[in-house]
Amino acid sequence: MLRILHDTKLDFIKHWKTAVIATIAFIALGMVLLGYHRIRTGHALNYSVEFLGGSVVQLAFAKDAPGDVVRSAVDAAGYKGAEVTTFGTTRDYMVKVPPKEGLAAAQNADSAGASIIKVLKTTLADNPVHVAQAQSIGPRVGSELRTKAITAILISFVVTLIYLAFRFEWRFGVAATVATMHDILTTMAFLAMMHLEISLTVVAAILTVIGYSLNDTIIIFDRVRENLKKQRKEPLYDVLNRSINETLPRSVLTHTTVFAATMALLLFAGEVIRPFSWIMAFGVFTGTFSSIYIAGPILLWIERKWPRETAGAPKGSSTPATEPRRERPSPVGAR
Description:
Blueprint (H helix, E strand, L loop, with lengths): L15 H26 L4 E2 L1 H4 L1 E8 L5 H10 L6 E5 L1 E9 L7 H19 L5 E9 L1 H29 L2 H25 L2 E2 L1 H31 L5 H33 L5 H20 L1 H11 L13 H4 L13
Helix pairs in contact: 1-6, 3-4, 5-6, 5-7, 6-7, 6-9, 6-10, 7-8, 7-9, 8-9
């Protein structure tokens, strides 16, 4: 079996202040961008047609078609501001347009497809094109999907809290919960920075990131709990660092494998799966970061406020549990 990074003694917790400042700055920048997007477009996040309602028209060309020509044709058809993206190759395009008032959902999709095709037959007369697929979602359905997506995230969060309450003592549960909230905020900030489209696929990616991060945090905390039972007098600071170092080989192999698979999807899977791949790639980073630099320091802070009872330490004393252990010098002349 491949053995890497065994018996390391890195002091991860020492850099927690720098890490916290960096992540607060990242989240703050993301929140500013969310406000900017809301002012500019009316929506803080870039919701897809699935959530806002509208039509999705997939165009199939006989030959490669220039993207700027297709976008100009969509604008000329009366759908200015529509989203036009390649669908695998430059022969296939996906056009997402807002709904028109007074038309049923099916009529919206058919009307959009017919209007765009009519302009394209004039603009690209030597390149036959047809509508491969057209579908439409009404605003009411989009609103219901948005509500259900938010509900799914909240339910997963509550179920996680219940699990942690039974799996660990409350100190670990609170620290893991704060780390999970950090992951949600950083992911939202990342969405704002990349201006990625929020679809049901992206919601699935966010739920996956939450589970992935919690899994990493629980593995570290499980090792912390085991080490606390073995060394009851050892300060929590030292136990945390030792536990992170002990799980480091497993973490590096797991994260590298997941990140490699995600990058393969990001580079080769096409436009439809790309937002999911971006969220998963970022989730590998933020999940690892929060497990070490958010959950660990929060656990230390809780320990200082409500210290554990450790063998050989006065009841209510936090020093033996939180400060790094230092060797005391031997008395002069002692044998």
